[in-house]
Amino acid sequence: SMPSEMLLKIFSYLDAVSLLAVGCVNKRFHELANDNGIWLKLYSSSLHPKRTIWKMKSKQTEAVSLGCAALHDKGPGYWKKEYIFKKTSAFKTRVMRLVKFLDPYTGLPCKNKEAMKVSGLSWIIVLKDKNGKEHVVEKPNLSFKDTSLTVLWHGTDWPCLDILSTLKLFGVTPLLPDQSIPPNNNGPRRFSLIAEYHLANLTENSVVVGADELVQLFSLSPGLLVGMWKGKNEIAFVMANLHYNHLLERSILGSATVQYSPPPNRPLLDDIDSEYGLHDYRLHLDLHGRNCMYLCGSFKCLFCRKRDIENGYVRLVVVNLKDNRKHLPIIGTLGICWETDVFKGNVKDCFVMDLTLLDETGMPFWCFSDPVRMELSTKSSGLYDYMGHVYTADYADSEGKVCVEFVWLEETKEYIIVSLVLYVSTKKVNSWYGTNY
User: Fold this and answer.
1) Which of 6, 101, 302, 349 could form a disulfide with 281 if both were Cys (CB 3.0 to 4.6 A apart)?
2) Where is the F-box domain (predicted)?
3) Helices (H), 303-425
4) Contact indicator for 219, 225 with CB cutoff of 8 Å
């Protein structure tokens, strides 16, 4: 029953976040909270930083006349939209400025943590059941690596897998970030869709990565690992592996329904003979199990000749089977660590592979962070230096394949990488360089 004039007077003392919250109370509050006069005042105060009184007096008359014209010419909510657009644009510019600093070791942004802190960025998953009801899971555990971020969610009240249809992964930031106050989950937030996964027939259509006494792991591309309780059709945890390449952009610049699409590469003119093929490529490779690092290595001067292109793939040999000087020992026993509120475990014979392949200019050419499983090979080691069981670990996506070969040394209880070969799709190469291999 309070008159609108009194409510508008009260609303005029609120900040932008409080105004947005008040607008969700009911239809009348929504209309009043969209008042152009209130939002124009907020917009003007954000447009002009604090100045001394004598500077403001000279512009006061002009500001009043412009303000009156702006109020009468614009529709309801216009200055609210303008204020939000201005604030979010300035926020995105500030975050993207931090991402421009590249690590010469990996070729990726080196200030990811700082950018995430400035943006108030977090990640959530939304489970949607077959009736359209959504279940939001927040408060994940984060594990930072050199080139990737592992995000783990677990809980005790998740819906049964039988009724679930999709899982969506979102990056979430405050709509109006303020570094002076911590992010509020109840405040207005912006959602950026990173990936969507279909959960129908999950156990039949997904790749089985491994299992221990309590859980079984299923891999969904790209980069998602779902842990199911053994003997039950219930999710124990969800683990997302996010590569740093375009991570901030995908987590901030997308919308709630459309994923962010990175700009196409602009090919540079190459004065080297085209028959030489790819040259001066660099690879940074991490193998980890979320909490422990098994291998962290960089490889330079990778190349291929035109004769190494066949069956739609360009072959890059990183570790040669016959060159034992480049064979790599693995630190520790390979496995993926997981945890819930009560239980912890380690699924052996699998790991997360973070691959960053840089082209001759140092630009990220092919990047991913995905779980990979090991399998015992039927052949035995033909190398005199290593007598033991041979294991293989293969990965494939639309851009290429990775083939790794290990030998298990029983005497020292360790794995040795004796072969590592990358197969890059010629479609990927052609679209990157605008050529035809």
Assistant:
1) 302
2) 1-42
3) none
4) yes
How many CB atoms within 10 Å of residue 318? Answer: 20
CB 141 within 8 A of CB 152: yes
Q: Is the pLDDT of residue 73 over 80?
A: no
pTM of the model: 0.84
Q: How many CA atoms lie within 13 A of 375 on its CB side?
A: 10
Tokens of 409: 């040394």
Q: Do residues 270 and 281 touch, judged by C-beta distance below 8 A?
A: no
At 51 the pLDDT is 46
Q: Which residues pair with 171 in a beta bridge?
A: 123, 192
Q: How many helices (H) and strands (E) does the chain have?
A: 10, 23
The DSSP string of 99-156 is HT-B-TTTSSBS-HHHHHHHHT-EEEEEEEETTS-EEEE---EEEE-SSEEEEEEE-S
CB contact at 8 A, 355 and 98: no
pLDDT in tens, 26-49: 999 999 999 988 988 888 887 655
Please name which of 112, 150, 218 lies closest in space to residue 369, comparing C-alpha atoms: 150
Q: What is the DSSP letter of 3?
A: -
* Extents of the domains making up the chain: 111-253, 281-433
Closest CA to 393 of 343, 322, 312, 319: 319
Q: Could you give the 3-state DSSP secondary structure of residue 407?
A: strand
